[in-house]
Amino acid sequence: MFEQKSRRRFLRGILAAFLGVAALGLIGLMVLPGYFTRTAPRTPQQPQLQPQQLQVQQEAPRTTQVATETENQAPTSPIAAVAKSATPGVVGISVLKVDGGSIFDKNAAEKWGVGSGAIVSSKGYIITNHHVAGGKSKRIIVSLSDGRNVDGVTVWSEPVLDLAVVKINLPNLTTIPLGDSNSIQVGETAIAIGNPLGLQFQRTVTSGIISALNRTIKIDTESGPNFMEDLIQTDASINPGNSGGPLLNLKGQVVGINTIKVTSAEAIGFAVPINVAIPIIQQLDAKGDFNEPYLGVFAYDREVIPYIDGNLNFDKGIYVSNVDEGGPAYNAGIRVGCVITQVDGNDIHTMMQLRTYMYTKSPGDTITFTHVREGKTLTTPIALAAKDRDGLLTR
């Protein structure tokens, strides 16, 4: 009797153990494949760029004023000092865009986009991005730090450079001083101010460092693939609505205009160096307009060339990769493969440096190129033309 009971208990124990192992195995079959799927290494992908950091909203901006509870407090850090001095010069820019072929089409859908800008002239000139204030729009409203909303008008824009200038007619505006983007160094502090996610979080301050310089990236435009050259890379947070806001150094000077970020990675954003915009702002301030000169070339910096053609090797200058056959440079003998080393006796190291120098000139002016072609050093005068359309690969 006792032995039979013991045998039955033993058999029940074996059966329970078997069922427990089977259950665990079934659970493992359901869970482990998902686990391995989540942790399996991913195939490397190309960085996903987001060039249009424009926050969309349904309504026109409302009059608001930035909180001023710390106005009378002394800054407790260098970054706080920059934020206090520069914030009044940062604006919100709301643009009523039209989805359609014409702004006069009554059936076209309308939407407000919100970006940022920096007041850089007491005459009311505001630097921002082309994708914020360029192109067709029905209305532009500029929101100032004191709560005023005023109408603005775009007086100049360039889609590939992704810069634009908006003009408002108000006196006694607080401006932000312009710095020298050629003097910044990798590792130094960078401060971004803008309106992430719209005017609800207007004039948000983020900080980081200058991560790299002279970055050239390929972008897709309405006219086809193009390049944004010699950008400043930063890990200061840039979010939708930050576009067009200033990137500042610890002196409170604008060294760049925030423009684009990599969406497939963290903390990789880019800004257009401010030096290329300085001659534009100076001419607008002096004459009220800017007539953009045109050369008709695109060239790569020396540091980029090994990634394009490992057989090319030169010590200085920029490598001409594209020439407009109807442009001034081609007519003067510049061809693909030429290396431009100097312009008017000034050493040239980047395409942005060449473009910045060009912007100090006017259509019809003559500049002298020193370049190497087929092993020979040549000096060539080139008369600049007027740029007649946007979206060109050549500059």
Commentary on this structure:
The chain is an alpha+beta fold and 395 residues long. It has three domains: 55-63 and 76-176, Trypsin-like serine proteases (Thrombin, subunit H), CATH 2.40.10.10; 177-278, Trypsin-like serine proteases (Thrombin, subunit H, Beta Barrel); 293-386, PDZ domain (Pdz3 Domain). Helix content is 19%, strand content 35%. A six-stranded antiparallel β-barrel has the order 9-10-11-14-13-12. The chain has a six-stranded antiparallel β-barrel with strand order 3-4-5-8-7-6. A hairpin with a 5-residue loop joins β6 and β7. The longest helix has 38 residues, at 2-39. It is globular. The termini are far apart. The model is unreliable at 1-5, 23-47 and 66-70 (pLDDT under 50).
Strand order of the largest sheet: 9-10-11-14-13-12
How would you describe the shape?
Answer: globular
CATH topology of the largest domain: Thrombin, subunit H
Structural class: alpha+beta
Whole-number mean pLDDT: 81
Q: Radius of gyration, Cα only, in angstroms? A: 28 Å
What is the helix/strand order?
A: HEEHEEEHEEEEEEEEEHEEHEHEEHEEE
Residue share in β-strands: 35-45%
> Could you describe the largest sheet, including whether it forms a barrel?
6 strands, antiparallel, barrel
Level-2 CATH architecture of the largest domain:
Beta Barrel
- For the record, the count of structural domains works out to 3
Q: Helicity, in percent?
A: 10-25%
CATH superfamily of the largest domain: Trypsin-like serine proteases
Which CATH class of the largest domain? Mainly Beta
Quaternary structure annotation: single chain
Q: How many helices?
A: 7
Q: How many runs of DSSP E, i.e. beta strands? A: 22
